[in-house]
Amino acid sequence: MSFKEFNKALKKNKLLGLKCGDCGAINVPPKMVCSECTGTNLEITELSGKGSVKTFTTNYVAAEGRECEAPYIIVMVELDEGPWIMGNLIDIAPNKVDMDLIGKRVVMGVKVFPGDKYSAGDMARPLFSFEA
Ligand SMILES: [Zn+2]
């Protein structure tokens, strides 16, 4: 699976991962080989997008051309299927966030961001919100 395919699915709110036929690990975002065992026997699998927050950071300085997005919260989420992915967190103001965030259940949504001078066109990015 190419990154382009992954991004195309993401735009439709589908999170795709690669399940390793050798060791069973789930890899996301897509990789050429399994990150656990370096196997190449990988099969596309759809993931739930649900998981819990492992760590986070608040970013006050956005990339050039994205100044209007700051401040924003980036979370590392451990998906129920195992892998960790990174995404923006909505649902809470960046100045209200504290260590209580660790362990909170979240669910993935998607936002399509317009292209900028560093990207080849618009791109979908995971956007997490609290699980109801
Ligand atoms: Zn593997």
From TrEMBL:
Pfam families the UniProt entry points to: OB_ChsH2_C (PF01796), zf-ChsH2 (PF12172)
Domain spans labelled ChsH2 C-terminal OB-fold: 46-107
ChsH2 rubredoxin-like zinc ribbon domain segment(s): 8-43
Top-level taxon in the UniProt lineage: Bacteria
Protein known as: Zn-ribbon domain-containing OB-fold protein
Species the sequence originates in: Candidatus Zymogenus saltonus
